[in-house]
Specification:
Layout (H helix, E strand, L loop, with lengths): L4 E7 L3 H11 L4 E2 L3 E3 L4 E8 L2 E8 L7 H6 L4 E9 L2 H10 L4 E7 L5 E5 L9 E5 L6
Parallel strand pairs: 1-5, 6-9
Antiparallel strand pairs: 1-6, 2-4, 3-4, 4-5, 7-8, 8-9
The chain binds ligand LP2KCY5N and cobalt (II) ion.
Length: about 140
């Protein structure tokens, strides 16, 4: 059912500082432009690597879903893994049928396709994002 690893989410208190770190550490890092996603409560910046992406996320205000994570981890850190699936509604039904807590209804994510999250306590401590493939495949 699971397809490719689409991205690794990394929470940070400052995308500007994290982006600069990636540029300094990896001289040829393809660091994109940051943009706001108010519907998700985060500011986002993608770093492209050959087989996946690092998704830097910074909270947009105290209501952000990553506010609590950064309160516990003020310097930031690895926040979630995102896998692609061919059909978001079939994937949601799959997890729910197995007793996993799906966090809300599918909504449009940073790649323009529907996403949902599965609670980390049901996934061995890993917050898991499920994303409908932008290529209509997995
Ligand atoms: C850029 C847009 C989009 C994309 O297209 O890619 C994104 O990626 S948006 C990313 C941000 N959005 C989300 O994370 C939405 C889903 N998240 C949530 O609903 C909540 O963050 C949460 C997972 C339910 C956690 O809620 P919160 O209130 O912050 O924390 P708690 O303290 O209640 O946490 C309970 C429990 O879970 C542990 N936890 C929390 N976050 C994580 C995490 N990222 N990874 C692993 N574990 C996590 C937390 O430590 C608590 O455990 P205990 O202390 O043992 O109770
Ligand atoms: Co993500």
């Amino acid at each position: 059912m699971l397809g490719r690893l689409n991205h690794v989410g990394v929470a940070t208190p400052s995308i500007a500082q994290s982006a600069e770190r990636y540029r300094l550490l990896f001289g040829d890092a393809a660091v994109g432009e940051a943009f706001d996603l108010p519907a998700q409560g985060v500011r986002v910046c993608f770093v492209d690597v050959p087989n996946t992406q690092v998704e830097l996320i910074e909270p947009l205000g105290a209501d952000s879903p990553i506010h609590g994570f950064l309160a516990k981890n003020p310097a930031g850190g690895q926040h979630h893994l995102c896998y692609e699936v061919p059909d978001i509604h079939a994937a949601k039904a799959w997890f729910e049928a197995r007793g996993m807590r799906v966090l809300g209804e599918p909504r449009i994510g940073a790649h323009g396709t529907p996403i949902f999250f599965v609670h980390p306590k049901d996934m061995g401590g890993v917050l898991t994002e499920i994303m409908e493939s932008p290529r209509g495949e997995h």
